[in-house]
Design goal:
alpha+beta, four-stranded mixed beta sheet, Thiol-disulfide oxidoreductase DCC, DCC_oxidoreductase, protein-disulfide reductase activity, DCC1-like
Length: about 200
């Protein structure tokens, strides 16, 4: 069981993985903005504003209205037989603590999706995709060996696709996972998504 504002459990150590410079922020700073709550606020508004203060490891935060991204998420869920990877739509408030912990904003994640692997350890773009693949069973995990390619080259390919994804496959007005409720059990923001839909 993790500390408040920390991770529920630990994964791989940072010594063997890439780490963004901003990942050294204190874990406790994740919920700093949640301390001042208006006592006069209604219970319904509080329910919607409260976000998790215990961060889970191996969470993919992605553009939930992107058709191409949604297809990728569906593929990972089907391949992830051991259910190691969890997901969160960028458009949900549940994503906020993860963004703050990693020192990124929504525009950053719209450009390159975020994989929060563990305490002080997160990745974006092509590195995030390959780290996700490393948790899948063979033969998919073998693709993570593409990490040996230079990061600028990998990210150039990633950015080329990311910048054109809406033009190629379009976008939805709402998080696409709501169209397939079988996937929702893998989403840490499922309660918020269902509440917003209602």
């Amino acid at each position: 069981m993790g500390l408040r504002g920390g991770f529920a459990s630990s994964t791989a150590t940072a010594a063997s993985q890439s780490q963004s410079p901003t990942a050294t922020a204190e874990v406790a700073s994740v919920d700093d903005e949640e301390e001042d709550v208006d006592p006069a606020a209604s219970s319904s508004s509080l329910a919607k504003a409260v976000t998790p203060t215990i961060l889970q490891p191996r969470v993919v935060v992605y553009d939930g209205v992107c058709h191409l991204c949604h297809r990728g998420v569906k593929w990972v869920i089907q391949a992830d037989k051991h259910r190691k990877i969890k997901f969160c739509c960028l458009q949900s408030q549940t994503a906020d603590p993860y963004l703050r912990f990693c020192g990124v904003d929504r525009q950053d994640v719209l450009a390159r999706f975020l994989f929060v692997e563990g305490p002080g350890l997160y990745h974006q773009g092509s590195t995030a995709a390959l780290r996700v693949l490393s948790y899948l069973p063979l033969p998919y995990s073998a693709l993570s060996t593409l990490m040996l390619l230079p990061t600028p080259l990998r990210d150039a390919v990633y950015d080329y696709v990311a910048k054109r994804r809406y033009h190629w496959l379009g976008k939805s007005q709402h998080c696409l996972v709501l169209q397939d409720k079988r996937l929702l059990e893998r989403f840490i923001d499922r309660e918020e998504l269902m509440m917003d839909r209602d």
